[in-house]
Amino acid sequence: MGGQTIGRRWPAATAVIWAAAGVFLCLAGCDKRYPAAETALTAQSSESQDPGAVSDIVESGDPNLPHPGTPARLDERRQMVSQIRDYGLTEANILQALENVPRHWFVPADQQRYAYDDRPLPIGHGQTISQPFIVAYMTYLLDLDKNKKVLEIGTGSGYQAAVLNEFTPHVYTIEILEPLGKEARSRFDRYGYTTITAKIGDGYKGWVEHAPFDAIIVTCAPDNIPKPLIEQLKCGGRMVIPVGSVFSIQELVLVSKNDKGRVTKQSLMAVRFVPMLRKK
User: Fold this and answer.
1) Which of 116, 134, 151, 272 could form a disulfide with 80 if both were Cys (CB 3.0 to 4.6 A apart)?
2) What φ, ψ does residue 100 adopt, rounded to 5°?
3) 3-state class of 134 per DSSP?
4) CA angle 118, 123, 127 (to 5 degrees)
């Protein structure tokens, strides 16, 4: 649900990504605070403050793969993308997706002035929206196209799902926190993300009714890779997931399953994510 880099190299084994994945305050002694009360905008609930005029929405015209968008704040989006490119992530399709999706649609009104800063921001309920760079990097690892079906664990405000939807209409996303899940579904409806399927539930279990998936992206860290997610990954598929205890340096892991069902795991870099929550 939320991620932040500390290292600015891409990709680099020595880089450390601090991923909030649902926690506004950084863990492990990070004392950085993000502005919340400095804005002149009045703070209310994130849903009532959901920004963006519906009349400003511009769609692709393809009902099978809608690309909702808006010309509003386009210059800021381009500046954000330029910064990501400077970090070393240069894949044109990934950068275009980040330019297309209006991040300010997924940021509460009291954080609007920071919507295109390359950093996580609070979205209410103790959660954050990920830093754009980590969204771009994890999306890149999935190697998506319009025919692939992707499962996201940790919907948050819906921004990552909207970015995934730039590549494929087959996006499924699960949020364990009911208030966030309801707000995200409302946001998808409002802005025209008609092909994103969302539910509230325990992401550890995956979504067996829609399995198998060509790609799975997880934004919170279990101690071990959940067996149900491996089982629901299609042969030839990829999963990107942080793994490890919240009290130690975790690893961002790329899980691949070959055509014969053999699973391999590649550790990409050190990360810090909050733990994966479970339904009691």
Assistant:
1) 116
2) -75, -40
3) helix
4) 95
Amino acid at 279: K
Strand (E) positions, 158-212? 170-175, 196-200
**Active site residues per annotation:** 130
CA distance 206 to 175: 11
DSSP type of residue 30: -
Q: Give the pLDDT band (50/70/90) at residue 131.
A: confident
The pair of three-digit structure tokens given for residue 155, joined into one six-digit string: 């919907």
Model confidence band, residue 46 (pLDDT cutoffs 50, 70, 90): very low
Return the closest-CA partner of residue 207 out of 221, 226, 220.
Answer: 226
Mean pLDDT, the chain, integer? 82
User: How many other C-beta atoms are found inside a 10 Å radius of the C-beta of residue 207?
Assistant: 21
DSSP 3-state assignment of 191?
helix
What DSSP assignment string belongs to 198-215? Answer: EEES-GGG--GGG--EEE
Cα–Cα nearest to 146, from 211, 91, 64, 213? 64
User: What letter would DSSP give residue 117?
Assistant: S
Distance CA 245, CA 196 (A): 31
Phi, then psi, of 277 in degrees rounded to 5: -85, 150
DSSP, collapsed to helix, strand or coil, labels residue 229 as helix
Cis preceding-peptide flag for 212 (omega within 30 of 0)? yes
The yes-or-no verdict on residue 111 having pLDDT over 70 is yes
Q: What string of DSSP letters covers 40-105?
A: SSPP--TTTT--S-GGG-B--S-TTS---B-STTHHHHHHHHHHHHHTT---HHHHHHHHHS-GGG
**Measured between alpha carbons, how far is 24 from 111 in angstroms, rounded to an integer?**
13
